[in-house]
Specification:
By secondary structure, this protein is mostly helical. Helix content is 80%, strand content 0%. The protein has a single domain, classed as Tetracycline Repressor, domain 2.
């Protein structure tokens, strides 16, 4: 439903951007440097978006947490391979 409605997509992107900013701020508060905090938060956000899309579009009954974990595993494998 969200993907079919431009207003809902925009609102969802705004929420995701706010969440990413909050994670970035929290990582900085914990002593992580600006660049690393931003990279980590944006990477996590991207992984979440990919996992969420897989979860929404799945024909079978996937668990969102498992889908997020699988997406992080795919990213780790991709990084390790290159």
């Amino acid at each position: 439903m969200i993907m079919a409605n431009a207003d809902l997509r925009e609102r969802e992107l705004i929420k995701l951007e706010r969440m990413t900013a909050a994670v970035t701020d929290e990582l900085r508060r914990r002593g992580i440097g600006d660049a690393a905090a931003s990279l980590a938060a944006k990477t996590g956000s991207a992984v979440y978006r990919v996992a969420f899309q897989r979860w929404v579009n799945a024909a079978d009954d996937l668990d969102l947490r498992d889908t997020i974990s699988q997406s992080f595993a795919m990213l780790r494998a991709l990084i390790a391979a290159h």
